[in-house]
Amino acid sequence: MRLSVVHRTAFHYASPVRDSVNMLHLEPQDFPFQKTISCFIRVLPAVRLRRFTDLFQNTTHEFDLPDPHVKLEIESRLKVLNQPLVLTDASREGTMDDITEVSAREWIWQFLQESRWVSKHPEIWKCAVDVTYGVSSVFRRASLLMEWIHGEFRYESGVTEVNTHLEEVFEHRHGVCQDFAHVMIGMCRSIGIPARYVSGYLYNGPRDHLLGSQASHAWCEVYLPQAGWTGFDPTNNTLADERYVKIAVGRDYDDVKPVEGSYRGTSVSRMDVHVEVTRV
Question: What Cα–Cα distance (Å) separates residue 8 from each residue in 74, 170, 188, 214, 227?
Answer without folding.
Answer: 6, 31, 33, 12, 34
